[in-house]
């Protein structure tokens, strides 16, 4: 684990005790949840249909990877539309909160369970390398992408965990907010050198210190999705800004939702090409038969 990732781990461990306990935090979680539910069809996932007449629809396993899961806001939003959920987070405390919430809501560990892990490490741990953490129908990162050290690598690694051709990656994060972070980082340096000689900064400054990217533009996200083996890029910006009442003051940020579908594997692409070739050859044969005057299609 890199030094930056370790800083994030410690910061979110410290934050877990008060995470999602304040009114503005509840409102933000609900805002993201509503946005996802309102865009279920747009996301392009073959969701479960528990009330369907077709037994195949009822029994089909729809798998969600809630990455950087925190206490489970994304799981709560999409849980009714899937059958199996796996969460991953680098914070041990967040994972504990997630699993407590899942069990208290009546879900079994087979239905929803989170583990500590880092998919973007040089060596991915065995507990997140097995079949349980492969072939997801959808993977979602909810407001954690700007904390990732290498977002382009993150998209590539997450794409590898999706079902080829159908698996969807969804990233919910902020449009650029560089000026705000620059002010907070300056505040952090000031506190560190004058008010906190022991090196302990305020919580808001500490969280600002763990922000690696000050938001993302559409062009940046679209390029990273394409470079990561995703296609069918989609982009949507929420009308209502996110409002956060931090210790350093009230902040407003615009939220976007980016989506893409994992491209076919090399074998899948070859199979598609071969199928198209067969269709073309069949059409040419039909034309030859008609020209002979003795055969019709």
From TrEMBL:
This is Methyltransferase domain-containing protein. GO terms for molecular function: transferase activity. Residues 183-204 are annotated as: Disordered. CDD domains: AdoMet_MTases. It comes from the Eukaryota. Keywords: Transferase. Residues 183-197 have a biased composition (Basic and acidic residues). The keyword Transferase applies. Gene3D superfamilies: Vaccinia Virus protein VP39 (3.40.50.150). Pfam families: Methyltransf_23 (PF13489). The keyword Transcription does not apply.
